[in-house]
Amino acid sequence: MKNINLIASLIFGIILFSCNKEKSKTSLEATHLSKTEKATDTLTKHIKPFKAELPTIGLLMYNGVLQSEVIATSDVFAKPSEAGKQLFNVISIAETKQPITTEEGMHFVPDYRFDNCPKLTALFVPSAYDMYAQVHNKKIVDFIKEKNKETKYTISNCAGAQLIGESGIADGHKIVTWIGGGEQLQKDYPNLKVQNDSLVTFVEDGKFLSSNGNLASYISALTLVEKMTSPEHRKFVESYLYLDRLQDWKE
Description:
- The chain is of the alpha/beta class.
- The chain folds into two domains: 1-47; 56-247, Class I glutamine amidotransferase (GATase) domain (Rossmann fold).
- It is 44% helix and 15% strand.
- The strands form three sheets. Strands 5-2-1-6-7-11-10 form a seven-stranded mixed beta sheet, sandwiched between helices. A two-stranded antiparallel ribbon has the order 3-4. A two-stranded parallel sheet has the order 8-9.
- 33% of the residues are buried.
């Protein structure tokens, strides 16, 4: 009888342990699922869907790009309206889908390649400290030429003006480049009307806008966002970015 009771106790213990283990496993799975769901939410809640009815702003990228000139444009155009409405598609484009490495060493993954890029309303052409590889890359130059046929605006910042010059799309138009680069730009591309970069920060001529680059790229982006929306939205974006704090900066 004692043996029977002992066996029964052992069986009950095994069943109880199994049940508790299963409950513990279920609890862990639920916890893990909860964490996964939260992680997914964190990853996806900032993604802005591509809406075909909205104007599309294209940010050209390539290895060695100055990341401030990519970030400035996305900073401005990705901001919603004051009511929280998405106003633009903001996409990045490179020759391939491989991550590009910026001048500063960060890795950016492009949204589109040259061969599957959607129709653009505006194309922003940034710069690098050494533009030799880009200017001599026929695929980049041809991409700018082709997209200029459909864009309403084409914008260069800093030495991105060299790619505009190489493409020939802005011949006969005013353009400005990085501070100190204008003289060589004029020699290389005599059909451009290169402005005095020591005096001119930003210039607009027809569909072409250009700036000295780096943080001056915000001027290009803000000027265009105002043209495409309203002065009130520009002021909202400036306040969103705390630009007034930089303008009134005191030590």
